[in-house]
């Protein structure tokens, strides 16, 4: 696996196309600046910008890994000598951003997962609280060719939870809580993750005094705090203490007026709904590009209706519908490590009542804003050229985000065929 410099590297079919276009001109390139353009124009697609707007027949010009221009066909000047790609009939969305995952803790595992994420159109993913060491944290510094960008909160902070992961900081006093945040600040984590959950009465959970100290210390270090929560009462306490985001929504009951009022007082707060299994039968055949047949049939056999799961899903779906309706900023995350889970989550957010457009905004620009990533999340001039070309329009049917024709990260096409071949061979 190669770490590349920020310079763009054109790959696979795309690179071949470019070479085919440029080689006949090589003899005169030195004397003809236009013919040596490295720009590519993607023409004719519907572009879903990521901020809620749509351009029906768009041109996107990409050069040096960045979008240099985007707009309606006819409004965009395509540089002379640029390669042109006809995407009529396709729809382009920004690469998706998953703010809540738990990813591999060795370099090899993590790089494989980041490629797998890229295959499914994810441009950036955050490992939220389960990373112990420097081996994977160091991977945040360089762009890995053909793979999603990696962010991490390092180890998170919770009370002692014997029997569960020992990677997070276990704190019992305000001094320990502040010291844990200081260590995370020295690791330059991307966000601080805390757990406020007694796991069904098994453990003590972070008290308001402890999470108050964590949030205060994090803000002193210009770090945001996102909380794993379960109960409505804890959610209210965290909002009063100034928490920046929830990595799950309220799960024990329907939210009440007091909660809605507390969230509305906090215009920058972001709720990541992270919906649970909807408990309905599903056709998983769309995963056949990366999941070996025997594993896929085992997964398919488990994908059946489950009334208990439907009940838990119902609470969280109602809460999402109410909070989204109230104007709360909604971000996007799936938990776990499944690279394809983003597409199920989008479908679940829409079945909870969000529009496909709002679900895509959550998974792109709002999640980029939550993570303070200023160069991704929308398709606009100056942004990193991270986008997904779809065969059908997800505004008509959100499951069309699964119909991926190609993925581009930092201006280069992701070699989905090679990733598919590797994953299917490894599992077979
Ligand atoms: Zn999690």
Walk me through this protein's architecture:
It is a single chain. By secondary structure, the protein is α/β, with parallel strands linked by helices. It contains 13 helices and 18 strands. Helix 3 packs across helix 13 and helix 7 runs parallel beside helix 8. The longest helix has 19 residues. Strand 1 and strand 2 form a beta hairpin. The protein has two domains: 128 residues, Roll (Urease, subunit C, domain 1), CATH 2.30.40; 275 residues, TIM Barrel (Alpha-Beta Barrel). Helix content is 33%, strand content 19%. Zinc ion binds next to loops.
Give structural attributes.
428 residues, alpha/beta, Urease, subunit C, domain 1, TIM Barrel, 8-stranded mixed sheet, 5-stranded parallel sheet, 13 helices, disordered N terminus, binds zinc ion
Would you kindly provide a brief summary of this structure?
This protein is an alpha/beta fold and 428 residues long. The protein has helices at 12-22, 26-29, 107-119, 134-137, 174-186, 208-220, 232-240, 257-264, 293-302, 307-325, 341-351, 356-370, 416-427; strands at residues 40-48, 54-63, 66-72, 83-86, 91-94, 96-101, 122-127, 149-152, 157-158, 169-170, 192-196, 225-229, 245-246, 270-271, 329-330, 387-390, 404-409, 412-413. The strands form four sheets. Strands 1, 2, 3, 4, 5, 16, 17 and 18 form an eight-stranded mixed beta sheet that branches. It has a five-stranded parallel beta sheet with strand order 11-12-13-14-15, sandwiched between helices. A three-stranded parallel beta sheet has the order 6-7-8.
